[in-house]
Design a protein that fits this description.
Number of domains: 3
Largest sheet: 7 strands, mixed
InterPro entries: CysJ-like_FAD-binding (IPR003097), FAD-bd_FR_type (IPR017927), Flavoprot_Pyr_Nucl_cyt_Rdtase (IPR001709), FNR_nucleotide-bd (IPR039261), NADPH_Cyt_P450_Rdtase_alpha (IPR023173), OxRdtase_FAD/NAD-bd (IPR001433), Riboflavin_synthase-like_b-brl (IPR017938)
Cofactor: FMN; FAD
Strand content: 15-25%
GO cellular component, one term: cytosol
CATH architecture of the largest domain: 3-Layer(aba) Sandwich
Shape: globular
Protein name: FAD-binding FR-type domain-containing protein
Structural class: alpha/beta
Pfam families: FAD_binding_1, NAD_binding_1
Distance between the termini: 21 Å
Radius of gyration: 26 Å
CATH topology of the largest domain: Rossmann fold
Length: 537
């Protein structure tokens, strides 16, 4: 299993800063080749104690033991429900992704806003940890105590004082089992850094394996390293691919391997509905690499797995046509004795933190400003929260103003591949249209239309193309109406295409031909924080 979570690295920005001047970098090849990782001074010292402590578990489950999160900053939330939002049973549309929405009980009021993220901490798969422990010649029940080395502190400082200077992940691992360290605190499934390749090369006894590994850590071996990246190799796959490599020490691994990082997902709910609940949505990362082997997202696969294993995940076909609420659907399902027993199982928790978005929030005067939302696929997630928020604010406004409806413009541009397979939140969109929370819904389907749409004058396309079909309305809203544009989704194709569409709209509406002049207007929108991005690659 390999870590390639595409939703991991999210960027929120209002405008791209100018690129710094490029500097000529001189790489010293000989220095890279002669540096020995084995001889580098170590920052940390590891003492291994054979007897496990009473509160440590040696279970091989992929779900983290809740006790392991008691001494850290992670919050915990109970999974209330989970459901697939897409239909992916058609082999002809194999590119349809499995999209899941999870609803959490936060157990207390936690402040968040629509547009914020939930950061989920997932463990490494127990199969990978088991094989890695065996390859490292380690016993899974051993305990470790990590302290700073004597060379970095004064000998008179107590070990307990040294511990607080450790990185947070090693503080959590201190006093726990090696299994805990490898499962929860080190990114053993991530892409291997070149320093680790250098270390493994120094530990190889076979000359050919040594040569390949050492070369892959140098400039001359960039093609080898590129191949490793393409294949998404990790520590375990390298150790199994190069059997002559002697097991690296835990000291070296905690020095070189990055801490396990959380994965960020856009929240698709509003705290105005219930401040103790939050929902988020994600695509399960699962695709074949160049060799035909499947690449799985670490966190998305784990979330799907624990929901399935605990009978929490319902397919779209199991949801009631007239009620899309999962809890009520579950209550109407006929239950066997086994099912009833499964319902009484222990609740399932996940460790998480909230991460606030610096800019991607509704304006304070959101009921008075036009809102334009552009979010294909799971990029629509924050806009579900936006619309829920606006719906409640509108109701409060109407009540306080004798049902004098607010007339702010709200637009949503949504795109996906198939109108029948991955048109997520279609029912919610229709409800927002009916209650006037959403004024305009523009959809773009790139591969397949429904039978009803096929009989109408509807064409396939992308959101960046559909935007240009409404050029005058959008330009007036932005240029004179003080509108806010929010774009969420793919950073490479979609967001670049949307930007180009707006520049072309500016040129068309102002009757100018100069790209630079049109770009200046777009930049001003960004500087005014009225053109906001939440994109990932």
């Amino acid at each position: 299993m390999t870590d390639i979570d595409t939703q991991k690295d999210k960027e929120v920005t209002s405008v791209q800063p100018p690129a710094p001047a490029k500097k000529k970098i001189v790489l010293r090849r000989s220095a890279v080749a002669s540096t020995s990782v084995l001889n580098d001074p170590l920052k940390y010292e590891v003492q291994i104690i054979s007897k496990p402590t009473s509160d440590e578990t040696t279970t091989t489950t992929t779900t983290p033991n809740l006790n392991t999160f008691n001494n850290c900053d992670h919050k915990r939330a109970r999974i209330l429900s989970a459901k697939y939002l897409t239909k992916f049973d058609n082999v002809e549309l194999g590119s349809i992704k499995r999209v899941i929405e999870i609803k959490l009980d936060l157990e207390n009021d936690v402040h968040y806003q629509p547009g914020d993220y939930i950061s989920v901490f997932s463990p490494n798969p127990h199969v990978v940890v088991d094989r890695l422990l065996a390859r490292l010649d380690l016993n899974d029940g051993e305990q470790i105590i990590v302290i700073t080395t004597a060379t970095t502190t004064t000998p008179t400082v107590a070990a307990t004082t040294n511990t607080v200077t450790l990185p947070v992940n090693l503080q959590r691992a201190s006093g726990r089992s090696i299994r805990y360290l490898l499962t929860n605190e080190l990114d053993i499934c991530g892409i291997v850094p070149k320093r680790l390749l250098r270390l493994l090369g120094e530990l190889a006894t076979d000359e050919q394996e040594k040569s390949v590994l050492l070369k892959s850590a140098t400039i001359e071996g960039k093609d080898i390293y590129a191949k490793f990246l393409e294949e998404r190799v990790n520590l375990l796959s390298l150790l199994e691919r190069f059997p002559s490599v002697k097991p690296p020490s835990i000291q070296h691994l905690i020095e070189i391997i990055s801490p396990q990082a959380p994965r960020d997902y856009s929240i698709c709910s509003s705290p105005l509905i219930d401040p103790t609940k939050a929902s988020f949505v994600f695509s399960v990362v699962d695709y074949p690499n160049v060799d035909g082997k499947h690449i799985y997202g670490l966190c998305t696969t784990w979330l799907e797995s624990i929901c399935k294993d605990n009978q929490l995940l319902i397919s779209s076909s199991q949801l009631d046509d007239n009620n899309n609420n999962l809890e009520s659907t579950l209550s109407r399902l006929s239950l066997t004795n086994d099912d009833k027993q499964q319902q009484q199982q222990q609740p399932v928790y996940i460790p998480y933190n909230f991460k606030s978005s610096p800019h991607f929030h509704l304006p304070t005067d959101c009921l008075a400003k036009p809102i334009i939302m552009i979010g294909p696929g799971t990029g629509v997630a924050p806009f579900i929260g936006f619309l829920q928020h606006l719906e409640i604010l509108n109701k409060r406004h109407d009540k306080d103003n004798n049902n004098n409806n607010n007339n702010n413009e709200t637009w949503l541009f949504f795109g996906c591949r198939s109108e029948t397979k991955d048109f997520i939140y279609q029912k919610e969109f229709n409800q927002f249209l009916e209650n006037n929370t959403l004024k305009h819904l523009v959809t773009a389907f790139s591969r397949e239309l429904s039978e009803q749409s096929s009989t109408k004058d509807v064409t396939l396309g992308y959101v960046q193309e559909k935007i240009k079909n409404h050029s005058k309305a959008l330009f007036d809203l932005m240029h004179t109406g003080g509108a806010y544009v929010y774009i969420c989704g793919d950073a490479k194709g979609m967001s670049v295409g949307v930007r180009q569409s707006f520049i072309e709209i500016i040129k068309e509406q102002l009757d100018i031909t100069d790209d630079n002049s049109a770009s200046e207007i777009w930049v001003n929108w960004s500087k005014e924080k009225r053109y906001l991005l939440d994109v990932w690659s």
